[in-house]
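Run GntR family transcriptional regulator through structure prediction, thanks.
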Amino acid sequence: MEQATRTRGRPRYDQEDAEAAEAFRSIGSKVKLNRDEAAPLWVQLRNQVEEAINTGLLAANSRIPSEQALCDFFGVSRPVVRAAIGSLSNEGRIIKMPRKGMFVAAPREHVDFMTANLGVFDDLTAKGHKVSTRTLEIYRCPPSEKESKVFGIPANGSVVRISRVYMTDGAPITMTRISLPGHRVPGLENILSENQSIFGTIRAVFGLTVKRADRWLRAALPTKEEADEMGVAANTPLIEIESIAYDADGAALEYYEAFYNSSVARIHMAVEQPSATVNGVDRT
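Sure, done. The structure for GntR family transcriptional regulator is below.
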């Protein structure tokens, strides 16, 4: 009588979740990573996996293979996989659970961009909403005094300015005036398309990723022109946001001022009380 062979350790990925494993094999067969492209391999891989999540090829709550399994699926090294998955985890697209593994995050029904290193476009898209844009203007010009101070660029440098209205499921949610340091995004004004994420574009084309952001909020009334763009009455109070986003090296990557209509989607903020410790002992 033949005896079944037993193996130690965690079971193989395809034995635990055959459907998701097949999805990853399908992605792996379609992924085209080009080492000659300007975007790093990890950025290319990250974008391909995110697209699979957005299109539903990778369903919410489905398990992600181990790093080594992903290396085998996509034919890349572990540092490439680790950087790609780390970026998706930082942006809330993938959840890492100790001793259980990694899973595709489920969509959420509020916005978290105020307390995450995301733009409103990426945050709402990740939650399953249909996001569209109406670009009012995009151009390159010398920096203002404020922009020179934020980005640390001289007066003879340049910035790319983008004015956009973002809509979620057809309803205007924010009107944003964005500035980016021109020397870090050469030609952006010629390649950014309508209904395309700015963060996603600079990540895919230039390999630039936002690590953290400082944001300030206050109540404010829009002008008549701004109210018309937002589809509200001129006397409607909105949330005014000022934001500076930074890369991993601490350099300012984006500055914006925006009006946000919280009646379209609430802003969610999570606050955690740090533990008070004395000589390493929790005294709370």
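The radius of gyration is 22 Å.
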